[in-house]
Structures are given as structure tokens and as C-alpha cells.
Amino acid sequence: MLGEQVLQQGAALGVRAAQELLAVVLQEVEPVTYQMVRAHIATLRRAPADAPPWPPSVCQVTGWLTRHPTALTEEERPD
Length: 79
What we know:
Largest sheet: none
Shape: rod-shaped
Strand content: under 5%
Number of domains: 1
Order of helices and strands: HHHH
């Protein structure tokens, strides 16, 4: 699809703002909506599959420390 190619070219050029990328695509006379461009940019911003997991939030750690050990799920319990 031409729109997909233009989106990838714009991303390769460093265009990360949805409005700017939409303007590039619309210049190519491709029927693309702002929501389509935003969805594509969201996929570019996702962490790669081999990225380490996010650290736990302060709320999660607080919950682990303040709840009774029997109330923790299997994943939350220390090894």
C-alpha cells in the first residue's frame, strides 16, 4: 500500500509527529485519516520484543510490601 510506504519513509526520515506525517501522506493523495497515522506511530513507539520488561511501579511495590503474603498472587511472591 502506498500509504504504508509513505508512513515508513516519513518515519525513516525522523518524522514522529502525527500531524507532520499525515501532511506527508496527504501530499501523496492517499486516503489516510489522522487516526491511521496515529496508530502507525504508536507501533513505532512500542518497545522491541527483546527489550527488558518495565520495572514495577511504586504502587505495585507498595502493594507487595503492605499486603499479607497469602494475599499475593503466584507471580507477586518472591522465589
